[in-house]
């Protein structure tokens, strides 16, 4: 399989960012892989504007705002920004008719494995494309909403898995978790409503998917678009188009509710150790092993987030926040960086606040790589 070219497609996104390298040793290193994990609904098309803006903001710029074009003879480093729709949400016929996709609805656990497979597939292509590397490929995970839970689980499994061979190994060096639903999602305002509806209508996913199918079959596309624009309060054209495609897809609505029900059962108490949370002690910060050195994590919480209860957010920040210091046997350990939004950005930031959040995310990535 040839290495993919940069593209923006219904079910995938891939962009290369080339920057001048700070040192000659960078020339032989793998590109940094920035992998984005969507929320639910798991359509990457909701995030096209965000990922495009993120790639642009990661590009080096001159004082006048123009993009730097590195000298062809200079040493260069590369960042790959990529993501894929979650399983069962694919809109392209080739993707949605793959074996095992047609009559199956994916659980949260299966989605985690699906994302792991996509990430490993990209890294395998990376190894075939780049010869004689001096180090392992480096990965930064970005997650939104339930994608943050998946990112934390992927990080845990990566740290707990047996050491892979040199041909398969990679380092997860950081993570950016946007509006994270990593604990007690059922206690959130929307979580309580969904839990009540699931108790009232056990087959909620099937009932709603049938209603959506009837609605999209009977209504002309123009009327459906008008309804979507009204309900979503006139979102950007790309967001409205993604929503219409989601409603018209054969399995998307049922997949979203099937997965949401599983989220209510699965995302409960804090289940990760300090090293997964990125808690670094003096003994680990100077260690050479990637597993000894925790990944740098940034959590960006919303205020009055309808998928994260205020109490849940406060508990996470108090217990795991970067300002929280823990006394360990080897000294004082610090946790991940946690920020609470003061700009009234909603949970679904990808609808109207892509540019703002892309800037914040780019700053976090630079700190991770710095």
TrEMBL record:
The chain crosses the membrane at residues 204-228. Coiled coil: none annotated. Pfam families: LIDHydrolase. This is Lipid droplet-associated hydrolase. It is found in: Lipid droplet. The keyword Hydrolase applies. It comes from the Eukaryota. The keyword Transmembrane helix applies. Signal peptide: none annotated. InterPro entries: AB_hydrolase_fold (IPR029058), LDAH (IPR019363). Belongs to the AB hydrolase superfamily. LDAH family. Keywords: Hydrolase, Lipid droplet, Membrane, Transmembrane, Transmembrane helix.
